[in-house]
Design a protein that fits this description.
Histidine_triad_HIT; alpha+beta; HIT family, subunit A; single chain; globular; Histidine triad nucleotide-binding protein; binds guanosine-5'-monophosphate; binds zinc ion; Histidine_triad_CS; 114 residues; five-stranded antiparallel β-sheet
């Protein structure tokens, strides 16, 4: 997707603080962190949102969660806990239309969000 900032981050056209990448996913720190640890995990394939998941592409969600499982351990937030967030569409507050999962940790988080 030409105008997608996350596709540009994957291609290295926009700099990012990368944590991990493999053939299918890319993980990097959020530019505007909402917690001491706040990173995003995205598919390399441009999938607009959870609404765009289907039989052919939904396996990536399992891979994203396995990646989160590994990274939270490496970053040392697995034991105290963390929050995984996906925002979908207008009411969900999605601002970047390339599906992504936020991972927030490093402090106690209020619930529910505002
Ligand atoms: P959303 O609101 O769509 O769920 O989340 C988009 C997230 O992407 C926001 O938390 C925002 O701070 C982050 N973000 C937007 N642009 C950039 C960028 O250029 N670099 C990084 N690292 N994060 C970004
Ligand atoms: Zn994209």
């Amino acid at each position: 997707m030409e105008d997608c900032i996350f596709c540009k981050i994957i291609k290295g056209e926009i700099p990012s603080k990368k944590i991990y990448e493999d053939d299918n996913v890319y993980a990097f720190y959020d530019i505007n962190p909402g917690a001491p640890v706040h990173f995003l995990v995205i598919p390399k394939e441009h999938i607009e949102s959870v609404n765009s998941l289907n039989e052919d592409n939904a396996e990536i969600v399992s891979h994203i969660f396995k990646t989160i499982n590994k990274l939270v351990s490496e970053l040392g937030i697995d034991k105290n806990g963390y929050r995984i967030v996906n925002n979908t569409g207008k009411d969900g507050g999605q601002t970047v239309h390339h599906m992504h999962f936020h991972v927030l940790g490093g402090r106690s988080l209020a619930w529910p969000p505002g």
